[in-house]
Amino acid sequence: MSGTHLAVAEIQSMLDAGFSEVVQNHAQLTELDSISGDGDHGIAMLRAGESVRALLREPAKNIASVLVAVSGLLLSSDGGASSALLGSFFLGMADACAGKNELDWAEMSSAFHAGLQKLRCYTEAKAGDKTMLDALEPAVAVLVSSHTCNLTIEAVMALAARAARNGALQTKEMPARFGRAQHLGNRTIGWQDPGATTIALLFRGFEKGLQPKEHHSRG
Amino acid sequence: MSGTHLAVAEIQSMLDAGFSEVVQNHAQLTELDSISGDGDHGIAMLRAGESVRALLREPAKNIASVLVAVSGLLLSSDGGASSALLGSFFLGMADACAGKNELDWAEMSSAFHAGLQKLRCYTEAKAGDKTMLDALEPAVAVLVSSHTCNLTIEAVMALAARAARNGALQTKEMPARFGRAQHLGNRTIGWQDPGATTIALLFRGFEKGLQPKEHHSRG
Amino acid sequence: MKKFINNPANLVGELLEGFALAFPEKIKLRGKNLIIRATPKQPGKVGVVTLGGSGHEPGLSGFVGEGLLDISVAGGIFAAPGGPAVADAIKLADGGCGVLLIILNHAGDIVSGNMAVDLARRKGTTIESVLTHEDISTGPKHRHENGRGLVGFLPVFKIAGAAAEQGMNLAAVRAIAERMSANMRTLAVAIRAATHPATGAVIGDPTNPLGDSEMEIGMGQHGEAGVGRSALKSADETAAIMLDALLDHLDVKAGEELLVIVNGSGATTLMELFIVFRRISQLLLEKNIHITRSLVGEYITTQEQAGFQLCIARMDGQLLRLWDAPCDSPYWVVR
Amino acid sequence: MKKFINNPANLVGELLEGFALAFPEKIKLRGKNLIIRATPKQPGKVGVVTLGGSGHEPGLSGFVGEGLLDISVAGGIFAAPGGPAVADAIKLADGGCGVLLIILNHAGDIVSGNMAVDLARRKGTTIESVLTHEDISTGPKHRHENGRGLVGFLPVFKIAGAAAEQGMNLAAVRAIAERMSANMRTLAVAIRAATHPATGAVIGDPTNPLGDSEMEIGMGQHGEAGVGRSALKSADETAAIMLDALLDHLDVKAGEELLVIVNGSGATTLMELFIVFRRISQLLLEKNIHITRSLVGEYITTQEQAGFQLCIARMDGQLLRLWDAPCDSPYWVVR
Ligand SMILES: Nc1ncnc2c1ncn2[C@@H]1O[C@H](COP(=O)(O)OP(=O)(O)O)[C@@H](O)[C@H]1O
Ligand SMILES: Nc1ncnc2c1ncn2[C@@H]1O[C@H](COP(=O)(O)OP(=O)(O)O)[C@@H](O)[C@H]1O
Ligand SMILES: [Mg+2]
Ligand SMILES: [Mg+2]
Ligand SMILES: [Mg+2]
Ligand SMILES: [Mg+2]
Predict the structure, then answer these.
(1) Selected residue with higher pLDDT from B168 and B1
(2) What is the pLDDT of residues D48-58, one digit of tens each?
(3) What is the Rg, in whole angstroms, of the alpha carbon atoms belonging to chain B?
(4) Which of C74, C85, C202 is closest, CB to CB, to B76?
């Protein structure tokens, strides 16, 4: 998969497509959060997602500045646990991209990994606890392990999106152990975690956003 | 109708029968008050009525002391406008009976009149305003005008009860002009006034309480 | 309506007991239904007493304390207490300089209040009374004396309480309480009716319930139906309608200073009250009318009734000084 | 759910603006969502800051003022504010002696609070934090650190606020806030779920709604479902069940002294809270446990959720002195 690079515009369109998926499905996210949480996850994601998408339409200095701005909007959307965690995720990505105008796939996957590491500063939840980590950990793991293979960026992101989706689906079987839902324990079994669902949507969008039509290869 | 006297026991049984009617119909009174007032008239009448009836079972010194006690219970039942007005009514009756151990019918009817006068100290409402006065005024008027006729006490009370009932029925056609209901004006048309209904029940009971079985003639 | 209660017959007794137990350093329950100060006012000052039904907590007894009431006589649920108990309270509150009885204009309170005044006078107590009747939905301009007493009791308690505490004589306390009363106006709106807590029954005409997208301007403090039913409006629109009616009734001109109170009826959140207050502020600013003091909260409620009362009052220098004076009651403290 | 609001997207902005307009002599809105004191604390004293979602009024911002908080950072409806805003607040509250951040144990508050602490430390501010986690339904004895932060924030605000006002240093303020936090326990009960005010949707599993004659012990402050569903009980029975669980968890012995708070969740009337408090008092008296201080009212609400939180706390001489110290915030004043 060597030889392909993502410039600012590609990163922007990847992110835009990701948040577009999330925004479009906000009602489902709220519904899931109403069951075991406080019924606001979709509201938070809609509000943050719309402001992020507006921002992504503006021209940007470099990759880190885009990611810092996305993180800032998530954090300043005052949207609760998920917004704060996602905000920290993009902040971690931004740190890893400092000074770069384009990313090769190795840099890209380590940026995702740095995001996950940053997010982990603020929660002890792990895959299996029925949180967004159930989707995010496997997705990032795919990115990290696949960037050495001979696959296109789109193909790797498709695998990551599938991993996120599966991870989110698996939360259905779990009792919650973090977040507001934790206190319901077994009563959350049968319902997919809202935050994990958001991650799955985000990666589905990333995959779409990297599709050849939008993707300008620099081979 | 001359020659009959009511002693303490007869007054007690008359009052008891009156409050018994009221207590039995408390639900209807609350329902009426829910429509145009604050939904508590039957509650107030039930509570006051039950304590009055308990008191009436105790032996009493004289007529005035019975009436003072009834008035006191009504006033201390903290039951709102109707209890306060009825309390003042029985206080006025009591004043008129001071020092008497039995009442002839003339004394009795002036006691009722004195009660009405006392009640009027505390409200400017008159028949026609859709309040308890619509039942009380005609009933007392019958007593006052009939005690000179040659009728039995029972017969006069039956006429008074009928007058009270008709007065109460007529409130259906009226817009309220006093009490909480006044502010609804025409929207109260079609509903009988709760307080007037209570007066009608009270007098229906008085009539029953004076029936020969309970009534010891001293002819 | 689901509630945390015990035997409905004991509602008032239990709530008054609990209230007294919760605030032992401020108030005491005397007898069955007199809420008195834990530390009585020094003799030589005018006493201030009120009466009113229960079920409206924290009104009225929540405002007994230094700088406010000496005694509140609590009635049954939504029902005035009897006159003799009020007369007892008046006697107890008399520190030798007479007592001011504040009566909210509701049928039962008037009857009992007047009876108490009679009884107290006969016993030789110097007693004056003042009536609050600031509701404009039931007291239109040409017969404002007919209006119900709503949350405007609070400024009148405050002004009379502070005036008495400062040692003014009865005539002066009464006069300034009257001035406060004459210079205030209230309008209520409801979007959900209350139930009577003893029966659980909804108050209101069952053949004509408040619709799911309706509101009612003028619904009473006891859930009595109002007169202005309309489609539910936004907070901003509702605020504008109510404010305009109040400003017109009180005849407020640009450049004047107003006290504004937004009182929640029970189920309406502080969040909503703040949103309403925001719009009131904006509208008054546009009209060049200055909000000199304000209160937003629940001062008198009606069970789970949803809605609010908006009260405006024209203030002057003396009223403002008394308004700002310290007070210390269970539900209102000014330092 | 019928409410007086405007565009649901503007709920928080409008409510904060209205709140600030209503209490101009006590608080100010700074930026988008920092509620600060109208008159800042003198420099040379420890700052006290908190953060939390909106929709719970008067909590938490209603308790900014002398002797209480310096700044409250308000989040979205039921949602923590972001870490950077909290870091800004910490910087602003630092009068040179450091800042104590009080965090209620909820996922979002923890994430944002910890991020803010990181950011503030990086900027060189001396910052400590204390966590409130006194809920016993989510924090059983063996993992009480997991419990949610409920109305127990109020004693912690009060103690930390008074300690800071009296000039204690950061370590001492933190230590005493921790002591207060460690010595309190709360349990909540609900009989009606809340709705989210922006969507109007009921919070809770739609396939398993709270029945008309059920109650739920442990329902969260955001309407999150609890764990102890049972038939609706009387006020007295409910009080006894909850009190016993709390006494056991805090391991209270006969002869001890407790602070007791009964906090209404929104739709539950003060009348009911008094009736509950009455029974709590009676039961404690029987057990020879003394109520040394008490509060009954609405300090943190969840829209139209019906129910209450019962909080008990073990007090000592120093805690009592700080509890009794004066404070002056919009929704709590001690003279
Ligand atoms: N401590 C945590 N660690 C990891 N993920 C969490 C944590 N708390 C919450 N989440 C995630 O956030 C989602 C809820 O987000 P949201 O409803 O927006 O926030 P809030 O819980 O503040 O209302 C949960 O479904 C879960 O995936
Ligand atoms: N001012 C008044 N004058 C005469 N009767 C009145 C007056 N106010 C109320 N009533 C009577 O009292 C009845 C209502 O009584 P009740 O519901 O017990 O008292 P409240 O109005 O205090 O709730 C009315 O139906 C009416 O007959
Ligand atoms: Mg949520
Ligand atoms: Mg009534
Ligand atoms: Mg009544
Ligand atoms: Mg939330």
Answers:
(1) B168
(2) 999 999 999 99
(3) 16
(4) C85
**Residues of C48-70 as b/e, b for ≥16 C-beta within 10 angstroms?**
bbbbbbbbbbbbbbbbbbbbbbb
Distance from CA of A212 to the nearest CA of D (A): 36
Chains D and A touch (3+ CB pairs under 8 A): yes
Q: pTM to 2 decimals?
A: 0.94
Q: How far is the CA of B42 from the centre of ligand 4 (A)?
A: 8
CA dist., res. D108 & res. D120, Å (int): 18
Q: Where in chain C is the domain with CATH 3.40.50.10440?
A: 11-183+321-334
CB contact under 8 A, B75 and C53: no
Determine contact, residues D334/D155, Cβ cutoff 8 Å.
no
pLDDT tens track for C53-112: 999 999 999 999 999 999 999 999 999 999 999 999 999 999 999 999 999 999 999 999
| Closest to B130 in 3D by CA, of B80, B187, B45, B92 | B187
Q: Which fold has domain C11-183+321-334?
A: Rossmann fold (3.40.50)
- Pairing mode, strands C47-54 and D327-329: unpaired
Tell the burial category of C257 from Cβ atoms under 10 Å away from its Cβ (0-12, 13-18, 19+). Answer: middle
- Show the ligand 1 pocket: residues with CB < 6 angstroms: A 33, 37-38, 40-41, 44, 79-82, 85, 123, 125, 131-133, 178-180, 193-196; D 78-80, 107-108
Pairs of residues, one from chain C and one from chain D, whose beta carbons lie less than 8 Å apart: 182
pLDDT category at D83 given cuts 50, 70, 90 is: very high
CA of C124 vs chain B CAs: smallest distance (Å): 20
Of 3.30.1180.20, 3.40.50.1000, 3.40.140.10, 3.40.50.2300, which CATH number belongs to C184-314?
Answer: 3.30.1180.20
What percent of chain A has a predicted confidence (pLDDT) above 90?
75
CB D142 within 8 A of CB D151: no
**What is the structure's pLDDT at C129?**
98
Does the beta carbon of B44 lie inside 6 Å of ligand 2?
yes
According to DSSP, the residues that pair with C291 across neighbouring strands are C258
Tokens, residue D18: 């209205």
Tokens of B167: 């007065």
CA distance C265 to D2: 14
Query: What DSSP line would sit under C287-329, residue for residue?
Result: TT-EEEEEEEE-SS--TT-EEEEEEEEE--HHHHHHHHS-EEE
* B205 close to ligand 2 (CB < 6 Angstrom): no
Whether chain C has a CB inside 8 Å of the CB on D210: the answer is: no
Cis omega before residue C34 (within 30°)?
Answer: no
C-alpha–C-alpha distance, residues C229 and C234, integer Å: 15
Distance (Å) from CA B79 to ligand 5 centroid:
7
Q: How many helices and strands in chain C, by DSSP H and E?
A: 8, 14
| Distance, CA of A139 to CA of C20 (rounded, Å) | 61
Cα(A96)–Cα(B213) distance, integer angstroms: 103
| First vs last C-alpha separation in chain C | 39
Q: Is the confidence at residue C309, as pLDDT, over 60? A: yes
Contact criterion met (CB below 8 Å) for A56 and A23: no
From B83, B124, B180, B201, mutation site for ligand 2 pocket: most ligand atoms within 8 A of C-beta: B180
Q: Are strands C257-264 and C290-297 parallel, antiparallel or unpaired?
A: parallel
Residue C251 C-alpha, separation from nearest chain D C-alpha, in angstroms: 23
For chain C, residues classed under CATH 3.30.1180.20 are: 184-314
Which residue in A34, A81, A183 is closest to D111 by CB distance?
A81
Q: Are strands B102-104 and B5-7 parallel, antiparallel or unpaired?
A: antiparallel
Token digits of residue C335:
């330092």
The C-alpha R_g of chain A, in whole angstroms, comes to 16
